Prior knowledge:
By secondary structure, the protein is α+β, with helices and mostly antiparallel strands. It has helices at residues 22-40, 59-77, 89-92, 116-136, 141-169, 239-247, 259-268, 308-317, 325-333; strands at 193-196, 199-203, 223-227, 230-233, 276-278, 284-288, 291-294, 334-335, 340-341, 393-399, 422-425, 442-444, 453-454, 458-460.
Amino acid sequence: MENQNTVLNIAAIENSLAGIDNDKMFELFKTVRRLSIEIVETLELEDFVVQTDYFMSPPRWHLGHVSWFYEQLLKKHFKEYKPFKKDYSHYLNSYYQAFGQPFNKARRGTVSRPTVAETIEYWNHINHQVSAFFEKTNVTFEMLKLFMLAFNHEWQHQELMVYDIQHLLGNLYQPKEIKTPPAMNGNPYKKEMLKIPGGIFELGFDVMKWKDQFAYDIEMPLHKVYLSDYWIDNTPVTNSDYLDFINDGGYTNFKFWLDEGWQWVSREKIEAPMYWQRDESGSWYKLDLKGKRFIENFPNEPVTHVSFFEADAYARWAGKRLPTEAEWEKAASFDEVKNEKRFYPWSEENKIENPNDFNSNLLESKIWSPTDVFTYPNGKSFYGCFDMIGNAWEWTASEFVAYPGFKSGFQEYNDKWFSNQKVLRGGSFATPRLSTRNTYRNFFKAHERWLISGFRCVKDN
């Protein structure tokens, strides 16, 4: 990828494994790599090496790690692969024990080598080797699957880079491009709860129906669950909603909190979402990727950077609860008229319309913040739920565990985290467009809130 100024059209690339040729696959590779570069393109040299906390990683490490991931595929499937002049595997391996003892994640920012220049040189070397691979190799279906995994892996790290850059720079980050959300032209919508009928629901990714689409093994197999009737918020909880919780003493009343959550709030002296601060007059603001923004000026954006503990406490305070992932997925995906699931909330079964500027706020939207929850009426689900893809990941009440009949498809990838994690659904304004869908299962620990996380509530019928 010699010319980094080439803008590639992601909308023109088929998101399919069926019948795809080498040229299209390499074009998708360049598109993925270009998006990573766009995220870091405006950083200063010093920004690439700083690690702000044990759970963060320097941007330099992310760039090196996603390149290292491709290198492992090349070593296995490309006979003419030419290794880089240095081996950075120990530092760039994240947690894959099969490739040796990984470097301590909490100390990724304590070493100066590889340098930023060496990392970029390594990045470009891998790009050239991947180019040679697609030019000289008769790519098999199995290879295509592995490269699609690698693309999705890089998309995940693109979102993580946004989290890390926000934690590092806050409002000092200057994205290469900031776009304006679609005009709302009046707002005929209102926040309300929608009734979702219960019954048997098939949870998970349907391999037979969506055989040309990528999904992780943790989204499978499709299996039946029983749901009782329930009501769900048509929008995520907003800043103004959450401010009511704060003003009503939500952070100081133990009765709303799980015991572990109350211990966490008390120990860490938590009194508001991450990145929220008060000025001298007592007004709340947050320092985010678009600057210093007072909460009162953006009341209808989804609240973000809250932990599962905070989301659960709010729901209890409101007399509601968090949805299970099955309840969330049905509200997002089911079409009662056709009696079938949709791949995206807005897509009909026989026509999968990818995310775009008019149905969701995702990374390629380049808005760099949440938008008003009613901005995307074209993105509504069959039942009328807004923002179920994009804006902010949504906590669910479900534990991140294997679905019944689960079979691991990718060694040491997702299934090794089936312990002490909560499921989130949907996607955020930092999620790449082709990396999420109604069945995607994200997961984090209950106290974590450095991700772009929000939630919506449900109540029983």
